[in-house]
Amino acid sequence: MINLSRFDLVTLSLFVAVARHGSISAGARQARLAVGAASRRIADLEDAVRTPLLYRRASGVELTEAGRACLRHALRILQDVEQLAGRMSDYASGAVGQVRIAANTSSITQFLPEDLSAFMAGHPGIRIELEEQNSADIVAAVNENRADIGVFADRTPAQGLTTYRYREDELVLIAPRAHALASRRAVAFRDTLDCDYVSLPDATSLASRIREESSRLDRPIRLRIQVRSFDAICRMVSTGMGVGILPRLAAAPHAKSMHLKLVALEDDWARRSLLLGVRAPDALAAPARLLVSHLRAAATPA
User: Fold this and answer.
1) Which family, according to UniProt (predicted)?
2) Nearest to 290 by CA among 124, 137, 144
């Protein structure tokens, strides 16, 4: 049985050069080998395949039938290796690959569609795997290497991650147009706490922020119903189930069709930051590094 471990790319490249030039010395020059070393490599290759590959004459060399078959396979192998090297170079440069992102609802509904679309237009070989999660779960996913990049709200504990400011959003009160607060241009959060509320589940960063602020005021929120999406909050509010708090850009598309009024909140905490988080920036694969740079460039100016 032929010992495949005795084949190497240098010898195959040399054999192709010798076959093309019809001369071991000419092939050795192209391969930048001494003639003696080249002769030994060709002889070792013949020993490995257990059959002569060249007819040796004073005027040069000529391929045997086995040599012609070896040449065809050697060319194919070298071509495959060249394509492999090119493909791996694409991965190394970040031209192709996959990036896993875990992001909260606010970033997905407001900012990521446009930012990711622009990135993918410039990097068509990179595939994005995007999963919507709560902010606390996002931090855990990045720390546990289930995501390369996290996008989550400030105030979320992010031990173990390097964070960068990404975008700013504004939280507003949403109310039916006939609601008593709908005529106000702005309202303090404390003045809304006599109203019934429609909210997201407790585990979300937005629900947590509202709960923290109501506790700070020692005014428990009158939670009437919890739903799982921004759209569902808008629908419930539009039917008179209560008021809600959502990012302005996420609520605005629903305001006209659902007859809602968006009222600014006067409280400082209603202006919040969305953060990018990664485990170790220097250890990121090239596609993830490119995407982090792109998202940071798209960040809301300070």
Assistant:
1) Belongs to the LysR transcriptional regulatory family.
2) 124
